[in-house]
Write a structure and sequence with these properties.
Blueprint: H1 21-37, E1 41-42, E2 48-50, H2 51-58, H3 63-68, E3 70-73, E4 79-82, H4 87-96, E5 105-114, E6 126-135, H5 140-157, E7 162-168, H6 172-188, H7 195-203, H8 217-221, H9 232-247, E8 253-254, E9 266-274, E10 282-288, H10 292-295, E11 303-309, H11 310-320, E12 331-336, H12 338-354, E13 360-362, H13 369-379, E14 383-388, H14 389-394, E15 396-401, E16 409-412, H15 416-433
Parallel strand pairs: 1-5, 7-8, 12-13, 12-14
Antiparallel strand pairs: 2-4, 3-4, 5-6, 6-11, 7-9, 9-10, 10-11, 14-15, 15-16
Helix pairs in contact: 1-5, 5-9
The structure holds adenosine-5'-triphosphate (ATP) and magnesium ion (MG).
Length: about 425
């Protein structure tokens, strides 16, 4: 036979294996409960949107739109894009479903995002985000609440090596005046700008401040600061936010060069970074996007949101050393003989009906007693339930502790559901005492 061709996974797109899933499930569980406690509701949006949505929302002169989108034409001739981030889809959904109308929405969503970046540790082409969006809230109180909620999340997950960076981008008007100053400044230094930055000079000069090019650091750090050109309302908004954070004991660092990679931000922007992950140090970033909804065709509505990078947070969770593996079964069911095999499923299902909390693993696929006991041992279960033809004949089953020397006992089938929880409790007590 011809050797078959092994199909590889797509570069930068990862499988999450059972041994890794614990951190994901913990993060999902903790965020779900935390967000609900703060009054956020889950919503789900498609993975694919019209390309125009992302171009409009994220901005033409951004890394994402310029070079990272998975865009294709479907067989109907429409240009579609795999979502590179979550906010655009949530806002689109709020508009097209008529959810706005002056309402105040507290929403969250999660799932895979797609960006054609250079894959490396902490940077993938399919990665996952958990997004939170508060739509219809103008004041700094909601900015502070979102940040406090993320600070609480890190505490609940045992994540400690994080730092909050904070900045204000002002309104789009104040930014326009600043932008002119910035363009004038960079024009004076055009000879040291790299090709990317020269191109951005017209389209998106603020992004030059975000350049990672070491040869440009001098010119970037001497550039005029946006924070010195804030309009009075944005200044007041920002000062109020800082005061609320300080009063709640949430540490932050002001970073006047934090501009964020997406065009839609205004006023507050923030980023949680860590020193525990190497180069990919941003774990959660967000900001206010007061102009976006109107720009996408909805009524002008202030809003703020953030997205956290699930892969990076999960890595921090596993570093924090939380116990993440699925617990072993409580009972391993060993079955031998034709009659026993025929009746096991019905019996076990009845036990499951009555004891839904008990984790029962049934030996599947037969095997002699020795092989089945080996599997039972390996499963980590403290107790084996043994069903043989002889036992069935007499209407009983055998119960055998697997981790303790206490002996095997017999139990009438009709009393199993009463007996199992008590035995498990005893065994747990014994193992704690031992
Ligand atoms: P970075 O500076 O790391 O490129 P970003 O500014 O592009 O991040 P956002 O678009 O704000 O990030 O996305 C929010 C979060 O999603 C980031 O803080 C990060 O944790 C995560 N993230 C972004 N891009 C990737 C990626 N390619 N792979 C894994 N996680 C990512
Ligand atoms: Mg990026």
């Amino acid at each position: 036979m011809e050797k078959s061709f092994l199909v590889q996974a797509v570069r930068g797109m990862n499988d999450v294996l059972p041994e890794q899933i614990g951190g994901w499930q913990l993060l999902e569980r903790v965020t779900r409960e935390l967000f609900a406690a703060y009054g956020f509701e889950e919503m789900r949006v498609p993975l694919v949107e019209n390309t125009a949505l992302f171009k409009r929302a994220i901005g033409e002169f951004t890394d994402i739109v310029e070079k990272e989108m998975y865009t294709f034409t479907d067989s109907g001739g429409d240009s579609l894009t795999l979502r590179p981030e979550g906010t655009a889809g949530v806002v689109r959904a709020a508009i097209t479903n008529g959810l706005l109308r002056g309402a105040r929405l507290k929403l969250w969503t999660s799932g895979p995002m797609f960006r054609h970046e250079r894959p490396q540790k902490g940077r993938y082409r399919q990665f996952h985000q958990i997004d939170v969006e508060a739509i219809g809230f103008a004041g700094p109180d909601v900015d502070a609440e979102l940040i406090a909620m993320t600070a609480r999340l890190w505490r609940q997950l045992g994540i400690t090596r994080v730092k909050l960076k904070l900045n204000s981008l002002g309104t789009s008007q104040s930014r326009r005046a600043y932008r002119e100053k910035l363009v004038a400044y960079f024009r004076q230094h055009e000879s040291v700008l790299d090709a990317d930055s020269r191109r951005r000079l017209e389209g998106n000069p603020l992004r030059i401040l975000d350049s990672k090019n070491p040869e440009m650091q001098a010119v970037v750090s001497a550039a005029p600061l946006l924070t010195d050109h804030l309009d009075p309302e944005s200044r007041e908004h920002f000062d109020a936010l800082c005061a609320m954070l300080a009063a709640s004991g949430i540490d932050y660092v002001l970073d006047p060069r934090l501009v964020r990679g997406l065009d839609y931000y205004s006023r507050t922007v923030f980023e949680w970074v860590t020193d525990a992950l190497g180069a990919q140090d941003a774990i959660c970033s967000g900001g206010r996007y007061d102009g976006l909804i109107n720009q996408l065709g909805g009524d002008a509505t202030p809003a703020i949101g953030f997205a956290m990078g699930v892969e990076r947070v999960v890595e921090l969770i596993s570093q924090a050393g939380m116990p993440l593996t699925q617990p072993p079964p409580d009972v391993y069911v060993i079955t031998s003989g034709e009659r026993a095999q025929r009746n096991t499923l019905a019996l076990v299902e009845k036990i499951r009906d009555e004891l839904p909390q008990v984790r029962l693993h049934v030996n599947l696929g037969g095997g002699n007693f020795k092989a089945q006991f080996r599997r039972a041992d390996k499963s980590g279960a403290p107790l084996a339930l043994i069903l043989g033809d002889g036992e069935f004949e007499r209407g009983v089953a055998a119960l055998k502790p697997l981790r303790q020397e206490t002996g095997q006992s017999e139990c009438p089938l009709s009393e199993l559901t009463a007996r199992i929880p008590a035995i498990l409790k005893d065994l747990a007590g014994l193992s704690h005492a031992g």
